[in-house]
Write a structure and sequence with these properties.
Blueprint: H1 3-6, H2 30-41, H3 47-59, E1 62-64, H4 72-83, E2 94-98, H5 102-109, E3 115-119, H6 130-143, E4 147-151, H7 154-158, H8 162-176, E5 180-184, H9 193-205, E6 210-212, H10 224-241, E7 246-248, H11 256-270, H12 285-300
Parallel strand pairs: 1-2, 2-3, 3-4, 4-5, 5-6, 6-7
Helix pairs in contact: 2-10, 3-11, 3-12, 4-5, 6-8, 8-9, 9-10, 10-11
Length: 312
C-alpha cells in the first residue's frame, strides 16, 4: 500500500471550540490495510525478543471485570492477580472496574503503581444524558480512579453529528481532572474503516489521552485492521500537533501470538517510543493466562494446563 492511497487527512483543526465543522471522511484502502496487517502477522520473532515481548504485553494489560455480578471480593481477587499474575510475571498496568468498585480496587492497589481505571459515561451504551454521564465521571475520579474509559454516542456519530461527539469528549476530559481519558469508539458499530478514522480524529482533537477500540460487549471487538487504522490516525495526529496519544485495543485478543503481532504493528507504525504501558494497553483479561502459560513454559520447558491459572 503506498502512502498516497493509505489515508487521506482532513485539514488541521486547532480551535478548541469545534463549532459546527464537519470532518470530511478519509478514504482508506481497505485491501491495502488488510495486506499490511497480514505482513505484521507474518513477522519472525527471535526467542529472546519473544520473551521480552511477552513481559511487555503483560505489563500492558488492563485486567478487567465488568459484570453485573461483580463483588468487592471478586475485585480484590483481581487486584491480587494484577499485583502478582504468576511466577516470573511482571504486574499489569491497570485494573478496570465499574465506578462503584473503584474504591475497593484503590484500597487493594494502594502504593503499587498499578492504575485504577473506571468505565463511565453509562458504559457500554452511553445512552443517558450528558449531565448524568459527567456526574458519573466526577464520582469515579473522586473515588480514586486514575483513568476513565468513556464511550462515545455512536448513534449521534453515525448521524453525522461530529460536533456533538467533539463536545461530549471535551466535557468528559474536563470532568476527568487529573485522570487520564480513554475514549472508546466501539468500532464494531461504526461500520467502516473510514468512520473509525474520523471518530479517532474527533476524539484526539477533543483531548483524549487514549483511543480505544471497543467495550468488549459488542462483536466484532478489537481487530488488527481497525487497530492499524487507529494507529495511523495517532501517528498523523502526532505529526500535526506534537502530542502523543495512547492506544488500547480491547476485546478478542486472547493469545500470545496475536498480542505479539499487535506489538510488531505498534512498533512499525508508531516507533519504539510507544512501546510502553503509558501509551499502549491491551483490554484483554483472558490474554493474561496465555501469557502466563508461555512464561511458565520458558521456565519449565513444558506447557501448563489453563486450569492451573485463575480465570479472574
Amino acid at each position: 500500500m503506498n502512502a498516497s492511497t493509505e489515508l487521506v487527512l482532513h485539514s488541521s483543526t486547532t480551535d478548541t471550540a469545534f463549532k459546527s465543522l464537519r470532518y470530511p471522511a478519509p478514504v482508506i484502502d481497505e485491501v491495502g490495510v488488510a495486506e499490511r496487517v497480514a505482513r505484521f502477522r507474518s513477522r519472525s520473532i527471535k526467542a529472546a525478543s519473544k520473551r521480552a515481548a511477552i513481559d511487555l504485553a503483560m505489563r500492558m494489560i488492563d485486567l478487567t471485570t465488568l459484570e453485573g455480578k461483580d463483588t468487592p471480593g471478586k475485585v480484590r481477587q483481581l487486584c491480587a492477580k494484577a499485583l502478582q499474575p504468576g511466577p516470573g510475571a511482571p504486574p499489569v498496568a491497570a485494573v478496570c472496574v465499574y465506578s462503584n468498585m473503584v474504591s475497593v480496587a484503590r484500597a487493594a492497589l494502594e502504593g503499587s503503581g498499578i492504575h485504577v481505571a473506571a468505565v463511565a459515561t453509562s458504559f457500554p451504551s452511553g445512552m443517558s444524558s450528558l449531565k448524568v454521564r459527567l456526574e458519573e465521571v466526577r464520582w469515579a475520579v473522586g473515588e480514586g480512579a486514575d483513568e476513565i474509559d468513556m464511550v462515545i454516542s455512536r448513534g449521534r456519530f453515525l448521524a453525522g453529528e461530529d460536533n456533538v461527539i467533539f463536545d461530549e469528549v471535551a466535557q468528559v476530559k474536563e470532568a476527568c481532572g487529573p485522570a487520564h481519558l480513554k475514549v472508546i469508539l466501539e468500532t464494531g458499530e461504526l461500520q467502516t474503516l473510514d468512520a473509525v478514522r474520523r471518530a479517532s480524529e474527533i476524539a484526539m482533537d477533543a483531548g483524549a489521552d487514549f483511543i480505544k477500540t471497543s467495550t468488549g460487549k459488542v462483536s466484532p471487538a478489537a481487530t488488527m485492521d481497525v487497530t492499524y487504522v487507529m494507529l495511523c490516525a495517532i501517528r498523523d495526529f502526532f505529526e500535526r500537533t506534537g502530542r502523543m496519544v495512547g492506544m488500547k485495543p480491547a476485546g478478542g485478543i486472547r493469545d500470545t501470538k496475536t498480542a505479539i503481532a499487535y506489538l510488531v504493528m505498534l512498533k512499525e507504525t508508531l516507533g519504539p517510543a510507544w512501546l510502553t504501558p503509558d501509551l499502549f494497553r491491551f483490554g484483554a483479561s483472558s490474554l493474561a493466562n496465555d501469557l502466563l502459560m508461555q512464561i511458565v513454559k520458558e521456565q519449565t520447558k513444558a506447557y501448563q494446563s489453563p486450569l492451573y491459572f485463575s480465570e479472574d
